[in-house]
């Protein structure tokens, strides 16, 4: 198994653990209310962070949305770090997946679109993490409006690409897994968005829960690339170095080039056909 498999596994491990640590910090500092709290008030006599006692007075400002958990320091610092690092890993996984498809198969519209949506999603994630919702609401919502739809589009494209390239039963099983995760992610995102705009306290709290589920599913989806990255080699980097223009490049092709010697020249497809 290739050492490259560590990269897709590290993303869900790091991000999922990280956002739960941020939630625990926000809960400890009484910046948000617990996930199991379903009772909210229109207003409270004291801010949540100043309250003492077993029973807390919560308002909609204390709903444990992921962004709310990372709004105030010190948890906001860790939230920005997690989102920035996660964004880098998302871009790296998307790029390696793009090159690996070219290496093992050939480039296609689905592959190129997958890379594009992946990088756009990463850009939105950076904005979400570094523009806190209480202090830069417009930029934060712009980032969320970019990251959430493109992440759904990315998982759908990758699911379709997996089926298109599948040749063995194992690869079809991976496609089934990704399709199921894509459907779950789409459902949770829709429910989170619909409940978020409602006035009901219970529905807004449910929106936060579905948002957590959505993000966890998306991160786990990236972890499924460990199946392909286990077969990755240095030839993938060669594809990137050549600008992704070599289709179906493999180690056997590389050996053939070496066997051809210095007088062996690569012929374009059009000349080869002639």
TrEMBL record:
Domain of life, per the record?
Eukaryota
The subcellular localization recorded is:
Endomembrane system
Write the record's keywords in alphabetical order, separated by commas.
Membrane, Transmembrane, Transmembrane helix
Q: Where are the transmembrane segments?
A: 7-28, 78-96, 108-129, 141-165, 177-197, 209-227
CWH43-like N-terminal domain mapped to chain residues: 4-231
Q: Which GO terms describe its cellular component?
A: endomembrane system
The keyword Transmembrane appears for this protein: yes
The answer to keyword Transmembrane applying to this record is yes
Q: Provide the topology term for how it sits in the membrane.
A: Multi-pass membrane protein
State the similarity comment.
Belongs to the DRAM/TMEM150 family.
Name listed for the protein in its UniProt record: CWH43-like N-terminal domain-containing protein
Q: Which organism is it from?
A: Coregonus suidteri
């Amino acid at each position: 198994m290739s050492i490259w498999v560590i990269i897709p596994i590290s993303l869900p491990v790091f991000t999922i653990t990280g956002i739960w640590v941020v939630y625990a910090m926000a809960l400890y500092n009484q910046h948000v209310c617990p996930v199991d709290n379903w009772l909210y008030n229109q207003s409270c006599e004291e801010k949540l962070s100043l309250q003492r006692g077993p029973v807390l007075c919560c308002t909609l400002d204390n709903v444990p949305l992921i962004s709310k958990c990372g709004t105030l320091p010190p948890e906001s610092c860790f939230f920005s770090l997690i989102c920035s690092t996660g964004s880098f890993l998302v871009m790296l996984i998307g790029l390696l997946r793009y090159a690996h498809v070219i290496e093992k198969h050939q480039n296609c519209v689905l592959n190129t679109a997958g890379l594009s949506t992946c990088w756009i999603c990463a850009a939105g994630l950076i904005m979400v993490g570094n523009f806190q919702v209480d202090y830069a609401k417009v930029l934060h919502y712009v980032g969320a409006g970019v990251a959430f739809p493109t992440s759904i589009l990315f998982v759908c494209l990758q699911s379709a690409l997996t089926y298109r390239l599948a040749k063995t039963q194992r690869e079809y099983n991976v496609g089934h897994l990704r399709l199921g995760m894509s459907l779950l992610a789409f459902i949770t995102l829709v429910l989170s968005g619909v409940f978020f705009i409602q006035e009901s306290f219970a529905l807004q709290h449910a929106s936060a829960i579905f948002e957590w589920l959505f993000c966890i599913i998306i991160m786990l989806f990236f972890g499924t690339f460990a199946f392909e990255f286990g077969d990755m080699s240095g030839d993938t980097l060669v594809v990137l170095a050549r600008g992704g223009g070599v289709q179906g490049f493999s180690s056997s092709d590389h050996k053939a080039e070496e066997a051809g010697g210095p007088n062996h020249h690569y012929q374009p497809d059009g000349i080869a056909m002639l």
